Amino acid sequence: MDDELAAAKGENAGRTREFHSRSSALDTLKDLDLIGKTYAITGTTSGIGIETARALALKGAHVVMFNRNIVESDKLKKKIGEEKPDVKIDFISCDLNSLQSAKAAAEEFLSKHWPLHGLILNAGVFAPTVKSTFDNFESHFGINHLAHFVLVKELIPALRQSAPARIVFVSSISSSHTGLKAEMSKSEKIKKLSPENATEFYYKLYAYSKMCNVLTAFKIHRDEFVSHGISTYAIHPGTMIGTDISRGFGALAKFWNLISKPFTKSLAQGAATSVYCVAHPDVAEVSGKFWESCWDDEKSLDADIARDISLQDELWEHSELLLDEWIKTQKPISTIGNEEVGTSSPEPPVSPVSASSEENS
Questions:
Q1: What letter does residue 48 receive in the DSSP assignment?
Q2: pLDDT class for 347, splitting at 50, 70, 90?
Q3: Where are the domains of the chain?
Q4: H or E stretch at 353
């Protein structure tokens, strides 16, 4: 861990900071032409996902939106098309409340034989009204981490083929509020990070899931950056207005957004760090770092936990084990003649807690 910390601290040497907390997503791309690049993004029908997709598409990129709500996806495509008639946007149905849906979405992407130059894992939930996913995982862990873990696992071959490529995890400074201590055993840490139910305070559950994002990003950096040319970034987008991630609080959330407006970022500003990390050439080689406001200043990172290589590996192995156990419950499609007659589980329901598209720390 000491070597990793030392390397991380030295990587911004020699770079000049060009963008700040009030820079917008389009500001970070102002001199770039992204024609020929393909980026996949989860959760683009609300929050910063809208501005993330819009900025990349307006600069000429092929944007593939992984969304639960296809109707809203089509509306967004048409709206961006009003600004740029030749916009190149596709969408794939993906409900992160269901691992089956996440896996099927990745398989659909791969079946298109599109390149993949960047993957932005943007969708997330905070204090959802429904406490467990379709697969009975605690909702923060199941949606914010495990479903995205499925997408990453399935899509890494496409990223390798398109390398140099990048993965952006929309995490949060909340990841530093887990309460985990370095002296705790790995098993104690993993038990906290992957809760079996929602018995703890919702903010703590959210913090766990966001630390999972950081640990996974740093693990992928170690495995993929040198070997396969995939750069990874864990980012905090900033506290923002106009996002519905805390919609479970109803009128209270609306009131809080109103009074906090002068101190928060706009959605376009909130999307800036994601867009900057996935597309700007200046940071192509700055992998395995935690970012905020378009800069890899890690003051908000709980490095004792996030830079623990053994914990990164343990979370990865635990996540794979959970997926293996889930796969065992999935029965193959039965057929009579050429007619499909059923699968092990029904179609995933349209869930009120599925991927909202933003993070509000």
A1: H
A2: very low
A3: 18-329
A4: none
Helix (H, G, I), strand (E, B) or coil at 170: strand
Cβ-Cβ contacts under 8 Å for 226 (sequence gap 6 or more): none
Q: pLDDT digit string (tens) for 68-117?
A: 999 999 999 999 999 999 999 999 999 999 999 999 999 999 999 999 99
For strand 118-121 and strand 88-93, is the pairing parallel, antiparallel, or unpaired?
Answer: unpaired
pTM of the model: 0.87
Coil/strand/helix, residue 65 = strand
Residues 133, 143 contacting (CB under 8 angstroms): yes
CA distance 308 to 320: 19
**DSSP-H helix ranges across the chain:** 2-10, 25-28, 48-58, 70-83, 99-111, 139, 148-162, 186-193, 202-228, 251-260, 267-270, 272-279, 303-306, 309-328
Q: In the structure encoding, which two tokens stand for residue 144, read together?
A: 């914010």
Which residues does the annotation mark as catalytic? 206
Per-residue pLDDT at 5 exceeds 80: no
Contact 109, 155 (CB under 8 A): yes
- The CA distance from 199 to 202, in Å, is 8
The residues that bridge with 38 in the sheet, in sequence order, are: 62
| pLDDT digits 0-9 by tens, 134-155 | 999 999 999 999 999 999 999 9
CATH hierarchy code of domain 18-329: 3.40.50.720
Residue with tokens 């083929």: 161
pLDDT at 1 over 70: no
